[in-house]
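Let us work through a complete example step by step.
Step 1: write down the sequence.
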Amino acid sequence: MRFILSLAGCVLLCMSTMASAADYYVDITNRTGYTLYYMYVSPASSKSWEEDVLGENVLVNGDTQRVTLTGYTNPYFDIRLVDEDDDSYTFWTVDVSTQDIVVTLDHLD
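Step 2: predict the structure and record it as tokens.
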């Protein structure tokens, strides 16, 4: 009986952990007048940037890129974009469940 209760508890714990992870997305629109070459999106609690989500692609002025964020436990992310002149635009603690990003020269670091 104890074994069954322990097993049931483990299953419930695993299910609650899986249920707390979610998929999010954010649409990022480039209105800088420059081509964006790098896009880093990391959980707001992270101390470092994750991989460039553009990879081999670029985000030309006027275009929008949807970034899908899978398996995270909360919707707060830091976002850094780098353009062709190596200028950066950083957005801190963005709630991607409620807002998208439009990058302009006003956001230049």
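Step 3: interpret the result. The first strand starts at residue 22 and ends at 30.
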